[in-house]
Each structure stands twice: as structure tokens, then as C-alpha cells.
Amino acid sequence: MKTFESNSKKQVFIEGIRDGFPIALGYMAVAFSLGIIARMANFTPLQGFVNSFLNHASAGEYAVYTVVAAGAGYVEMAIMTLVVNARYLLMSTALCQKFSSKTSMINRMLVGFSVTDELFAITIKRPGFIEPLYNCGAFLIAALGWCFGTSFGIIAGELMPLRLVSAFSVALYGMFLACIMPEARKHGIVAVLIIISFISSYIAFRVPALSHISSGTKTIILTVIIATVAAIAFPHPEVEDDD
Amino acid sequence: MTNTYIYILVAAVVSTIIRVLPVTLFRKPIKNRFIRSFLYYVPYVTLAVMTFPAIIDATQSKISGTLALVCGTVAAWFNMSLFKVACICCAVVFISELILV
């Protein structure tokens, strides 16, 4: 019985690694682009590695680099992280419905810590209760790609010709687009919100009168205003179905 | 530059709390309709705000950045994977800048 249990545990862990592998490849490319931005904020390869391991969030780390580059304060850093990573609050909340009551607190915390957009997606797709070992396997391999990608980006960004730096620097925005557009296709209101966000952001970042406000603060203000108005005017349709 | 680690730590503490708190504390779904709708919209709005106009400022030429935005949007619209969309954006910038810059 005991061997059977440890075998299946090992298998779950290996399944996690298997599913995490393609994610790790994608992460490596995007993290490389993030590393180029990190270098502009004077991050060392080690600092980039540590940041990537602890924060493991594209937008969240991008926020760190812009805040540090702008020399803004720690409070702005905290609020900015809260806003750009707010979606993980929603994802973790969704995951907490999928735990077996037997899952220990430590394992719940580990699964929570490992949440990223892609790992959330593969966890939700898996039938049955959450198996923490599966998430650990997927997270380990994905985090390896993510952390080393960041460090490589910081190191290679220095050696690469400007032409390549310019090309790689848009990988991160490509990843953002890949996160938002499928939902925009499904829900027209999300598409409209994205267009409104683009326009307001363009105005906020181009009007000279607003140039003294840091980019992090602008992102926070715009997000809170647009999402609040949208939540009041167009409550998300799925919310009604739940009650 | 040691205060860089403090920035990393501040961000790490906040993002860990965001990720870990719900799975440990909230054992029940959030019922409030406004909060659920707000949390649903936040990621799309914030990622959109961070993408534009930053994407056209990241490249050597504004035209190549704009092309990357358009091609990336189309690719993502047709549900191409994160990795493919990112690669398409990079390729578009690289190729267009061979002509533009």
C-alpha cells in the first residue's frame, strides 16, 4: 500500500513537470525580455533571479522595474504590486474551491504561492481535487525557465545589438496581449474596456500636464477608475449565474 | 543598490499575501457582485494600460512597435499561445526595423 502511494505521488509530481515544461519554454522567452527591462533599472543578474523567483509575475515584475527605475517609494511599490497582481487574488479564490478538506495548510499555501496565469489555467483544467505535488512539479520547472530567462536577459541584454534588444523588448507586451485578447473575443464588454484603457492610457502618458505623475501611479489610478465604473455599469454576467 | 532588495521584498510580500491569503482564509466564494465584477475586470484593464502606449515606446521605431501591437492583437485574438504571440511580436519588430531603421 505504501509503495503504491509513493509511486502515485511520484507520478503526480512528474505529470506536473511534464505539463509545466512547455510553459517553462514560453516563460524563458518572455523572462528574457523582462531581463532586458530589468537591466535598464540597473538590476544585477542575481537580483533579477531573486525577483523572478519571489514574484513570478510578468506584470508584477515589470512594475518592480518601472518603480525602481523611476526611484519611487516603497508605498507606491506595494500599491502597484497589489493592483497589477490583483488577478491572482481572484485566481486563488477560485482555487480554494477545488481543495480537498484533507489538504494541509502548508500545502494550500504552497499551491497559492505557485499561482501564475498559466499554472492557474492548467490547475483548473485538471479534474478532481487539487494535488499539491502536481503544482509543485509544474511550478519548479516553470520557475526555472522564468528565473534563468530573467538572468540571461540581464546578462545578454548588454551584449546584444540594439536591433535584437528592440525586437525582444516587445515579447512581454505580446504576453500581455495573449492574456487579454481571448477574453475580449468572448465578451464584447472586455474588448470595449481594453480600447477605453488604451485610449485613456495614451492620454495619461502623453499629456504634458500629467507628466509629473509616475507611470505606476497612473496605472493604478486608471485601473481603479475604469474597473470600478465597469463593475458598476456592467456587472460580470457569470456573477449572476452563481447565485 | 542594496535597497533594490527592499523593493523586491516589498513586492514579494504583497504578491505572496495576494496569492496565499485566499486559499487559506476564504473557504467560501466571494458573494458580493461588485467585488467579483471589479476583480474580474482588473486584470484586463491593468494589462491593457501597461501595454499601450509602452509597446510603441519600447522599440527603436514607433511604427515597428505599432505593427507589433496590431499583429500581436490579431494572433492573440485567434487564441494563439502565449509563446507564439510573444514570438510573433518580436519577429514583426525585427523584420520591420530591418527596413525602417
Features:
heterodimer, A: 2 domains, B: 101 residues, mainly alpha
Sum this structure up briefly.
The complex is a heterodimer of chains A (243) and B (101). Chain A is mainly α and 243 residues long.
What this model shows, in words?
The complex is a heterodimer of chains A (243) and B (101). Chain A is mainly alpha-helical and 243 residues long. Chain A has 2 domains: 8-169, no CATH class; 187-237. Helices cover 81% and strands 0% of the residues of chain A. Chain A is built from 13 helices and no strands. Chain A has helices spanning 2-40, 45-55, 58-70, 74-84, 86-95, 105-113, 117-125, 132-159, 162-168, 171-186, 188-206, 215-233, 237-242. Mean pLDDT of chain A is 87; it is low at 239-243. Chain B has 101 residues and is mainly α. Chain B has one domain (3-100). At the A-B interface, helix 1, helix 2, helix 3, helix 4 and helix 5 of A face helix 1, helix 2, helix 3, helix 4 and helix 5 of B.
* N-to-C SSE string of chain A, H for helix and E for strand: HHHHHHHHHHHHH
Rg over alpha carbons of chain A:
20 Å
Number of strands of chain B: 0
Written as H for each helix and E for each strand, in order along the chain, the element string of chain B is HHHHH
Secondary structure elements and their pairing?
The complex is a heterodimer of chains A (243) and B (101).
Chain A lengths: L1 H39 L4 H11 L2 H13 L3 H11 L1 H10 L9 H9 L3 H9 L6 H28 L2 H7 L2 H16 L1 H19 L8 H19 L3 H6 L1
Chain B lengths: L2 H22 L8 H19 L2 H5 L3 H16 L4 H19 L1
